Amino acid sequence: MADYAAALTGFAALDEAALDRPWTWRDATMSARFALYRTLEDAQEVAVRIAAAPHPESRRILALAQRAFGELRGLLLGVPDALLDTPPRESAWTLRETLHHVLVIERRYAVQTRYAVDRSEADPVRIPEDRLPTPASLPNTGDVAALLARLGAARAESARLLEDLPPAALTRPMRWVHYAVDVRFRLHRFAAHIAEHAVQCEKTLAAVGWPPTEGRRIARLVAAAIGEVEGLGALAEARELEGRLVERFASVAA
To answer: Rounded to an integer, what distance in angstroms lies between the CA atom of residue 100 and that of residue 210?
Structure first.
């Protein structure tokens, strides 16, 4: 995993000129950017094959959240630590604050949804607030890699709790803000919430003067596709794809 993060970070640092350098694939020479695009194609091929197998609906939904997390990771790995605490404007969240919020909500959504699945008819529809994680109860220290690793661990816990729900569980009632919803709705919120704040992070980076390179733009797509494979439960295939990216970065960087 550390090697994969390093390879993503390395590719994300490459600008257009660096990606124009020659790279060899199957005895043919093309630009180095195709080390990324070939990995994207590999991940898409695996994702289509894995998705064709039967999966619980809850796993398919949460795979979208893992895809969104992959894209967020591709966006942020390698961002200078100094930018973590640089506000884009007065009173606006920094990257650190945004990522901490995503972590808190990830944990809260998981607990709330599992409660909705398990509660008896005599229990209240809304989980008691004192059973939910709070911002103060979760750490918010470390560099970009540490913050993303913490969110990745929370995502893995969400999958463990919720990816194999029976169909009947998806219609169990629960609350979101002041709306009456069901478990299916809440499961879809995982991906949408991560995507919402990935956009916020992208806006923050632009506001503090750190635009993405071409390499980062492509790396986000690769990380998202590998995330979807992982979210569908194909962990061995995801690790193989990560290893392929590591090898290709080494060949580009040589």
So the answer is: 21
DSSP state, residue 125 = S
pLDDT tens-place string over residues 193-206: 999 999 999 999 99
**Residue found under tokens 């995503």:** 102
Question: Tokens 């600008």 — which residue?
Answer: 15
Residues present in the chain in total: 254
Q: Closest Cα partner for 223 from 152, 134, 125?
A: 152
Q: Sketch out the chain's domains with CATH numbers.
A: 2-253 (1.20.120.450)
Residues 6+ apart with CB under 8 A from 75: 198, 201, 202, 205, 212, 216, 220
Kindly report the number of other CB atoms within 10 A of residue 223's CB atom.
28
pTM to 2 decimals?
A: 0.94
The β-bridge partners of 182 are 173
CA dist 182 → 62, 70, 171 (Å) = 15, 26, 5
Beta bridge partners of 23: 30
Examine the pLDDT at 1 and tell me if it is beyond 70: no
